[in-house]
Amino acid sequence: MTFQAPVRDIMFNIEHLSAWQEVSDLPAYQGIDQADVQAALEGFGRFCDEVIAPLAAEGDETGSHFDGQRVVMPAAHVEAFRQYQEMGWQTLAHPGEFGGMGLPRAAGAAATEMLNAADLSFGLCPLLTDGAIEALLLNGSDSQKDQYLEQLISGNWSGTMNLTEPQAGSDLGRVRSKAEPQADGTYAVSGTKIFITYGEHDLTENIIHLVLARTPDAPAGPKGLSLFIVPRYLLDADGNPGQRNAVNCVSIEHKLGVRASPTAVLEYDGATGFMVGEENRGLEYMFVMMRAARFAVGLQGVAVAERAYQHAVAYARERVQSRPVDGSSKDAATIIQHPDVRRMLMKMRALTEGGRALAMATAGFLDIAHHGTDAREATAMAEFLVPLVKGFCTERAVETASLGVQVHGGMGFIEETGVAQFYRDARILPIYEGTTAIQANDLLGRQVMRDGGETARRFAGMIADTAAELRKGSAAAQGIADGLDAARLAFEDSLAWMLETARQNPNAAFAGSVPFLMLTGNLAAGWQLGRSALAAEAKLQQGEDAGFMTQKIATALFFAQHILAECSTEKTRIVSGSASVLDAGFDI
Amino acid sequence: MTFQAPVRDIMFNIEHLSAWQEVSDLPAYQGIDQADVQAALEGFGRFCDEVIAPLAAEGDETGSHFDGQRVVMPAAHVEAFRQYQEMGWQTLAHPGEFGGMGLPRAAGAAATEMLNAADLSFGLCPLLTDGAIEALLLNGSDSQKDQYLEQLISGNWSGTMNLTEPQAGSDLGRVRSKAEPQADGTYAVSGTKIFITYGEHDLTENIIHLVLARTPDAPAGPKGLSLFIVPRYLLDADGNPGQRNAVNCVSIEHKLGVRASPTAVLEYDGATGFMVGEENRGLEYMFVMMRAARFAVGLQGVAVAERAYQHAVAYARERVQSRPVDGSSKDAATIIQHPDVRRMLMKMRALTEGGRALAMATAGFLDIAHHGTDAREATAMAEFLVPLVKGFCTERAVETASLGVQVHGGMGFIEETGVAQFYRDARILPIYEGTTAIQANDLLGRQVMRDGGETARRFAGMIADTAAELRKGSAAAQGIADGLDAARLAFEDSLAWMLETARQNPNAAFAGSVPFLMLTGNLAAGWQLGRSALAAEAKLQQGEDAGFMTQKIATALFFAQHILAECSTEKTRIVSGSASVLDAGFDI
Asked: What is the ipTM of this complex?
């Protein structure tokens, strides 16, 4: 089954949801217009469809292998990565100053989604490299930028994030790796890092590890971590990979999914490292990189959902089974005609497009936060939305991939059909880069409590405005407004309860943190689909692309009636359900 | 991680939910008391814990293999199956007349759950044999019973169900296999059957295939199917396996889960078959067998959920990560102390125990339906509940297994941890023996519409009675009553809408059939947990086993607040969401 990058829908999202006008007026994006973005995404979409998507099943079957010293990638991946480098796709959303195309974040998000839809395992290498680029752009010294950025942006080298240790997963304060200062200003980094995605591979001529470790006199806990660049090969005088550094792959994991992506245990044994920024500020820098990575992992969720949806629709159009339930024919029908199959497909589509809409709107806020002149509100909104992109899109990806298996019936359980892989691959997404609970803690603790609910109320206010606009539209638009208003009220009630409860009884508040994240994620995605419907109704009136626009409205209405309807349940869980979480024992 | 069969909770369910008094008074079960059941289940529980559970991971890794002629099972499975036969565990819930222990269905259900929790792949062989036994008990001739039942009940031979063909999955009317009558009264059966669980293996000395096929003059469609016994080895004059029959395994599937269980493609090439019952009534007979099999697959759902829950609780007790959110300690805590981990564990437990309670209550109705003197109401209730057991428990098993991975964080994604297997294994459960949509069609079309909602209203009435009882109890009991009443009202509204809609607009009704099944399943399981809470409160007053009883009540309350709360969402989907399912197009 072939994959087709959803460029049409992505461009609709960029045009109508990503604050395109405001973003493209920013000094950082002068001279870039929508046609540039569309041309780049169409080209990259073709590459994803034709070169990457066909590798996914084979990469899953073959996997990456560790021969005791090196990690050997599937041969087809090596060749595809060579083409990816040659065509310069890593450069897409990075600054022109270091050789990038310099497109806005929404375009970068679109590229991340398309590549990961084609193959999550392949997409992880560029995704981590993007994160390393982001970290160096923000916190690297000028000479570090000169040494590493062009090679990373060209895709010649790849980047990694080295946070986790056996005793330090979600809790980075427990990191033990050491960094001893050397006479030449470098550091000798020692320790064991686990779960390092693309920590070792043969796709690029160098790998730039970004590593959290402690200097000898650093305070205990999270405020004693510094960030280090540890290249696999130290650079020679010309800036080329030279001497092998003292970092070695010990093993790679045998995983449920993303099997072509090597997940390494790395041993640092006095490896030469270069401090990034200031001592003891590593976690702070890492947070910036993590925010970018969390956003990207949310896009991976949209990606795998899109891939699963395309597969399911194609199968449902072909598979003939059982007569229509309405007795309209004595012959068996294609299963796409059966109401419950339509329901499953619509749920998959609504969750996919809702996730994409949320992510694209967030990309707009991120760009304004980053490059705008008065960025306070945009920054707060971007920080509010990122845990939703990560939490909502990845949880929904697991659900969507599972529905994709269900649409296939017994064939879905056979590995050769290909959809079981999406179900396996998707399962890591709500875990890595911070579990859903960690996202929910970020949302509740940092984005809601810290400003006393100000950003959350602004968010609700914008949604009320969108609903008011929708009320002026068609019957479908009014149906969407009904769903949005009911969900917003559930959110406001839950928010009030959280603000009241969190300080006096934090356990009760955090017992509802994930339901609160899911409620808010539903609402945020439904809101953006409401904005899509407004844009689509305007386009319809102009007589533009009626088929596409009608379906955008239908998807938004389905989301309002089937997904936003969950918000009342989440509210009940939050405001009435904390004691039954906390009081239970676990002794039977 | 070891498994411990939950005999304590199972006995509580048998005693309080399975209509034990009425069932044990049935003539079929004269002389059997609870102590007999408990002794049998404790013995079998130990066998599951010690012999079967340790095989699951290895069986998954090794898988079953087809060498071109025979299917080779993992060696450890062969040895364990020999012990299973020797100890006579297949006999547990089958009639004494053919060598069975003759225990009631609730005990049989408990055994099915425990064995499948230990290893779903292993459990499938006995499960299919149980189905074949059921079919022959009900519809076999006396000589067929004499020839096959003792050997099947002893576990010496195994049974299979041969329904599906490449063009006939859910829609058995499309079955094409042929059965040509022969001069000696036998039939020559030809055709290809796919997805045949344990269709070929080396665990038993014979395999008794039950096969749907058409006689030459049979009418087209589902009313032209007859049922045939096709033994792998024809019986000789002494009733022992003799000449090889013309049925051959062509291949086995490469599957997402249950990998030690061979799923065969069988080629029948004029194989000798013996008709069961009357010509053209095969589907009717198969339905009886399918009802038993659907009930058993629902139990597989409870089983894998229990296994996943035990793993998750054990990990959460050991894994130390992050400080408590309430600031009560500066040290990192075991993750079971974190509110969201408790929420996930409670959700797993509530879904597992709710499914078990529903299944055990259904077992009681099934026994009364089968052996009682005035069985009309019990039969209708059993038929109403079976699609819920299958649909609800299997969908929830996927969710519970997925939560089990989440509790483990990154370790959950590593295959060696063992919990990814449950996530893979569980995924077949909402598909085989009729997908969730097929269960929902059965519920809505046969169990609700056919009697104009009479059984459904009786079901709601019994729930109202339970809620009224709960209102006389503790604060927790009253909280459970609140949840039950709200969910029952959502059910009654949805039922009224369905009864009004289904005839005039079947597509609209069936667009909500799975939400209706999930609403009803939630309510049925919550009801049975409400009955558990009533029983537990009574026991508490008698001072019996306070720890266990308190936790039963806590689980019921959690279910009421976190799971029953979903019923309002399902109602919205049903009564307001059908047009947005049906009107959507799939052209973008």
From this structure: 0.97
